[in-house]
């Protein structure tokens, strides 16, 4: 914002704050949303490896399990997963499932025009989620006008860092400046502000809203914290400025597109491949390494424990359309049939489960997504749920895998 056109009340407000120039506090930043780790998290959610909680967020029990298998930070998975859900790259389907969202193509194709739009929507939904609203309740909620607020605020303080512990209070105090001056300052940025929008800022930026907004900014990487001169400072990142159209676009990294399959069942797949190919590998393989080129190990047990309605062999063959001849070990593996399926009866008062036959009992007892629910010491030919397990979730997972569940 040109200082000569800044209203006196806003200029004086900035001068009254304790600030520090951001020079040497920031860091160079590439465009993170198209990186291999964002794509890995999208594939983990879409592959069914991680289920959804009732509020639409990733189930951390599943996230921790996948993180240990892939040696991948579970907190990074949680943070990116929530952002992808907020951006509608991934959607909450049934109570415990994820599916491709309407913005998956924009995300995967790195669409430079649409990307800022879906990311700004993601910031709004994350902020509302932090105020204990489920993801689908806050979908498309723009009535808080927080993007306009952030645009004006970070433009006003561009190049300056604020004391980190005071940022929320400064947000609120800024929204209380004279309406006519805020509207005038917004006009220099092309923002159509009015009294109604400013009133929404003031209503939203109570202590709880301040904390929610700061958390959303941190999750989206729109702001940084840094320690200097014995204080902790907070300021807009190059990414945040770019997404608010206050700074230049960030460079987009190139992604690997190689695809190799080996006789020891190892698969090496670049993060630049089609999402359908990568999701299939995440679904039916053990994840050995998450990097520019993902490393998998095709897993017969995982294929056998997949849903009875799936066709893992066909899906995996579609991953390798350009491979003339698969190694014999891989071709043999792709003939493995899912074991899940059959009928179960459940007695709700005791959470006692009666599989229709020994094969069905063994399929549940050994299934990686079901065995954690089970208690040892069940009567012969029966299964017993742990007292702390949720029978409803167990039934949902059984049905997802192709089992027919009835009450006894």
Task: Describe the structure in your own words.
It is a single chain. The protein has 408 residues and is of the alpha+beta class. The protein has four domains: 3-27 and 143-243, no CATH class; 32-130, no CATH class; 259-333, no CATH class; 342-407, no CATH class. The chain has 18 helices and 15 strands. Strands 13-14-12-11-15 form a five-stranded mixed β-sheet. A four-stranded antiparallel β-sheet has the order 1-4-6-5. The longest helix has 16 residues, at 115-130. It is elongated. The chain starts with 7 loop residues before the first helix and ends with a strand. 36% of the residues are buried. This is Helicase XPB/Ssl2 N-terminal domain-containing protein.
- Shape type: elongated
Strand coverage percent: 15-25%
Uncertain regions: pLDDT < 50 for 5+ in a row? Answer: none
Taking strands numbered 1, 2, ... along the chain, how are they ordered across the largest sheet? Answer: 13-14-12-11-15
Biggest beta-sheet profile:
5 strands, mixed
Structural class: alpha+beta
What value does the average pLDDT take? 86
Number of strands: 15
Please estimate the helix content: 40-55%
Number of domains: 4
* Tally of separate helices: 18
Cα-to-Cα separation, first versus last residue: 70 Å
Radius of gyration: 25 Å
């Amino acid at each position: 914002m040109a200082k000569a056109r800044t209203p006196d009340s806003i200029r004086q407000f900035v001068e009254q704050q304790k600030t520090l120039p951001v020079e040497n506090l920031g860091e160079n930043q590439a465009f993170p949303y198209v990186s291999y780790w964002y794509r890995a998290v999208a594939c983990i959610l879409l592959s069914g490896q991680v289920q959804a909680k009732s509020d639409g967020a990733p189930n951390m029990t599943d996230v921790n399990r996948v993180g240990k298998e892939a040696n991948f930070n579970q907190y990074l998975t949680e943070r990116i997963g929530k952002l992808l859900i907020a951006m509608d790259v991934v959607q909450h389907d049934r109570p415990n499932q994820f599916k491709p969202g309407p913005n998956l193509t924009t995300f995967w194709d790195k669409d430079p025009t649409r990307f800022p739009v879906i990311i700004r929507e993601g910031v709004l939904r994350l902020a509302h989620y932090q105020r204990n609203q489920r993801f689908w309740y806050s979908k498309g909620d723009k009535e808080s006008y927080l993007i306009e607020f952030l645009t004006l605020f970070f433009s006003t303080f561009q190049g300056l860092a604020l004391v980190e512990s005071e940022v929320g209070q400064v947000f609120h105090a800024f929204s209380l400046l004279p309406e006519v001056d805020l509207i005038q300052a917004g006009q220099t940025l092309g923002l159509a502000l009015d009294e109604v929008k400013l009133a929404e800022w003031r209503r939203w930026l109570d202590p709880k809203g301040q904390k929610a907004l700061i958390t959303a900014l941190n999750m989206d990487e729109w702001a940084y914290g840094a320690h200097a001169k014995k204080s902790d400072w907070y300021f807009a990142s190059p990414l945040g400025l770019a997404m608010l159209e206050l700074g230049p676009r960030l460079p987009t990294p190139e992604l690997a597109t190689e695809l190799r399959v080996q006789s020891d069942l190892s698969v090496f797949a670049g993060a630049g491949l089609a999402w359908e190919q990568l999701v299939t590998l995440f679904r039916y393989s053990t994840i050995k390494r998450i990097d520019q080129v993902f490393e998998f190990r095709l897993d017969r047990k995982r294929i056998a424990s997949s849903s009875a309605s799936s066709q893992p062999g066909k899906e995996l063959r579609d991953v390798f359309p350009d491979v003339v001849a698969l190694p014999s070990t891989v071709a043999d593996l792709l003939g493995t049939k899912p074991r899940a399926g059959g009928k179960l009866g459940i007695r709700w008062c005791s959470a006692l489960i009666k599989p229709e036959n020994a094969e069905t009992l063994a399929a549940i007892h050994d299934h990686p997504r079901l065995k954690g629910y089970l208690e040892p010491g069940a009567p012969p030919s029966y299964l017993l749920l742990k007292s702390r397990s949720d029978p409803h979730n167990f039934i949902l997972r059984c049905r997802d895998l192709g089992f027919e569940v009835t009450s006894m």
